[in-house]
Amino acid sequence: MFRLTPVVKNLIFICVAVFILDKIFPGFYLTERLALWKISTDLFKPYQLFTYMFAHGSAGHLFFNMFTFAFLGAQLEMVWGFKRFLSYFLITGIGAAVVYLLIEILLNPMSGGSMVGASGAIYGMLLAFGFLYPNMEVQLIIPPVAVKAKYLALILGVFAYMMDTSGQVAHFAHFGGAVVGFLVLRLGLLRD
Asked: pLDDT tens-digit profile of 32-75?
């Protein structure tokens, strides 16, 4: 069972609350208001670089993000403490949004659309987990084998990328969260 740490517990609560409120009050368009809209639209607002992380497009999207977050985030928060962990979460989440927007401007400058979800920050945490604990063995349920964290991070990253057949997943945000997370760790930017 997961031992939820304070920041992880509160961030999961916020994400679940946003999802439920959006379903209870659909006319308020909470997810659309919090989503990160592309700069080419009139709907883009700078605050969305932060708020998009707390809105999710479906129950499955929310479940898998929060499940991964509970596992990885709690481990990192226990070691780093709440300030360093929250800083890392926000830096990788906002960094993922910035990378996503920059790449979209370069590749698809006039496209519309939006992005939601904590996946960019979660990819940052996945990278941190594999980076900080490369040889830690993690027992999987399916298949029932133990895998080193460095391989688990790589497998989960590739698996998530390969599983998207809809073309609706913001892979550049995932990539951005991992790259920003790597830079933060490599450059030693997290301080107590």
From this structure: 999 999 998 899 999 999 999 999 999 998 998 898 899 889 99
pTM, rounded to two decimals: 0.89
* Every domain of the chain and the residues it spans: 6-186
DSSP β-bridge partners for residue 37: 114
Correct CATH for 6-186 of 1.20.1540.10, 1.10.10.10, 2.40.10.350, 3.90.180.10: 1.20.1540.10
CA atoms within 13 A on the CB side of 116: 17
Q: Are 91 and 121 in contact (CB under 8 A)?
A: no
